[in-house]
Amino acid sequence: MEYHLHTPVSKSDVEKLKAGDVVYLTGRIITARDKAHIRMAEYFASGKPLPFSLEGAAVFHGAPIVRETDGGWEIVAIGPTTSARMNSLEPAVIKHGARLIVGKGGMSAEVLDALREQGCAYLSMTGGAAVLGARMVRKVLGAEWQDLGLAESVWMLEVERFGPLTVTMDARGGDLYAGVRSRVSENIKAMRSD
Amino acid sequence: MEAMEKIIEDATVELIRRAVTTLPQDVVAALETARAAETEATARRELGIMIENVREAGRCALPMCQDTGIPVFFVKMGHRHVAGLEDALARAVRRATELVPLRRNVVDPLTRANTGDNTGVRMPYVTYSFTDADYLEIAYMPKGAGSENMSALAMLCPPVVVGVGIGGSADACMGLAKKALMRPAGSKNPAPAYARLEEELLEQINATGIGPMGLGGRTTALAVHVERADCHTASLPVGINLQCYAARRASVRVYEDGRVEYGGE
């Protein structure tokens, strides 16, 4: 199935999605890599409100190449980073309202549990397809935590038909990577017995 | 000599721009062959997006991937010493960071403070070899992190190019693995036994079924390159270094008369 979703994304939108479906996203995405995840965890621990809302949010694992323009920013290239680095910090982000996590490579069993408990899905974007990615960004809405460096700041981006994104971990416990992993281990076993 | 330094600096800025915005034709061809061989729809779609992105990057002179990596140079020195070479390379990296532009990726390993211009302590990282040629050859490999953090399968960005170093000492072996990634995708080791090893490894890696982006399929590696050095009778060091399908590389020759020639091996 192919879905066109708008942010903020509702729980019922997410519950429709099944591993293997394709999603195009319109609205706002929030970028967050390692350092932004660490800072979000600090804010959660102290109860301090974030400078952006995670309610119904699409959190994107990645950071763009940007060029400063007159009074603003231009996105030159944007694509996903490896999501597994954020494994330990993602459940808290999901509990604070995120509905979609977009990255590459998939995440841990603990994250899969959090997706199911909260009604959130993980979407895979093609790695390195950064010129096509930048074309789907309409506008830079803002950048928070710029003290983390431009590659680790939280960028708020307005996107249009951002995709195709493949649903690889859904809110029902479906995990496309688990299927691939079990086939891969069978294939390796077969090679060894040759 | 000052003029030569400036020629090298300017040529290196252009070298970096070419490396991050265009993918060598051998890699594009490998992606196209892989797409034709895929039977699964998801794998075909992923490879199709990769090919389209590479085309558009070249057409618009934009970095194909947002991870423009850390600056890694391989320099073949000609028979003449070039004063101020490393400073010229570092200046070129700073200029390219602004001009192309590149993402600012270089940080202190402990404090994680960003240096802001992609240079720093021992960065750019330069490996030298020496020839008797009347030119200096500079090859550039923007090395992204996805293909470098290779502690688990999930960290990879398949399809990959696999560089294998075999023999030498521990450090030499890892160096060979990285050097192997500079070869054209799918080129063969001249020694038949090592070429056979490359073929066997490629076949086995692709038989795993990991597929593009780890979503299943036949294309997990585009090529396997093995580079060898002879080693101690008591050891067999093996080093592995991976490069994402965006296997970016470019080289330039700077002649003693100031002539500059891009491309080539």
How would you describe this protein?
The complex is a heterodimer of chains A (194) and B (265). Chain A has 194 residues and is α/β, with parallel strands linked by helices. Chain A has a single domain (2-193), classed as Fe-S hydro-lyase, tartrate dehydratase beta-type, catalytic domain (fumarase), CATH 3.20.130.10. Chain A is 30% helix and 31% strand. Chain A has six helices and nine strands, in the order E-H-E-H-E-E-E-H-E-H-E-H-E-E-H. In chain A, the strands form two sheets. Chain A has a five-stranded mixed β-barrel with strand order 2-3-6-7-9. Chain A has a two-stranded antiparallel ribbon with strand order 4-5. The longest helix of chain A has 18 residues, at 176-193. The mean pLDDT of chain A is 95. In chain B, 36% of the residues lie in helices and 21% in strands. In chain B, a hairpin with a 4-residue loop joins strand 7 (250-255) and strand 8 (260-262). In chain B, helix 1 packs across helix 4 and helix 2 (25-37) packs antiparallel against helix 3. The two termini of chain B are 26 Å apart. The chains are: A alpha/beta (194), B alpha/beta (265). Chains A and B meet through strand 4, helix 5, strand 9 and helix 6 of A and helix 3 of B.
List low-pLDDT spans of chain A: none
Classify the helix fraction of chain A into a percent range.
Answer: 25-40%
Described by strand count, sense and barrel closure, the largest sheet of chain A is: 5 strands, mixed, barrel
| Cα Rg of chain B | 19 Å
Distance between the termini of chain A: 39 Å
The named CATH superfamily of chain A: Fe-S hydro-lyase, tartrate dehydratase beta-type, catalytic domain
The DSSP helix count of chain B reads 6
For the biggest sheet of chain B, the summary is: 5 strands, mixed
Distance between the termini of chain B: 26 Å
**How many separate domains make up the residues of chain A?**
1
